[in-house]
Amino acid sequence: MRARCEGFTYLTILFVIAFIGIGLAVAGQVWHTQALRDREADLLFAGDQYRLAIQRYYLSGPRQFPRSLEDLLRDPRQPGIARYLRKLYFDPVTGKSEWGLVRAPDGGIMGVYSTSDDKPIKTGGFSVADAAFEGAEKYSDWRFVYAGQTQAPSTSQQQPGQGQAPFPQQQSGQAQPPATFSPPAQPQSPMFPAPGPMR
What we know:
- It is a single chain.
- By secondary structure, the chain is mostly helical.
- It is built from 1 helix and 3 strands, in the order αβββ.
- The chain has one domain.
- It has a 3-stranded antiparallel β-sheet.
- A hairpin with a 5-residue loop joins β1 and β2.
- It is elongated.
- The N and C termini lie far apart (83 Å).
């Protein structure tokens, strides 16, 4: 009888340990998923800040795109201090300061994107500005672009630190670049604040 009771107690302990392990695994998966969602939200915020800063830069002087992201912190075209971005953001997905750069035909920067090829959790429900992200297969397809008044904007796979030569125009028969969102040159809605440097 004692052996039977001891065997039953042993099995009960094993079941309890197994249930605790399953609970911890589920909790860990939920935490991991939520952490990814938080990083996605941070990526959408940082990318939107870059896009709006590029827009302000473009509309606050000669219709030119910044030559580097640092130009958004201090516009070299202005005699005084003109800021369009308060700080340079890290890529929340990779945790690095490097961003992929979308090059304009003149060699300037018209947008940024994460260099991560991981598959996003979020695949729908984006804002109007990010409608092109619907169904994207990887984070690097989320391209935060302001096309300005360019006639034929083209995207570049160029990584930070590479040459600054303009991206060649697309020829007929070649693959077209990913779709990008081009807000109006003179935005009127709260989504796109009036152009001008930060005070």
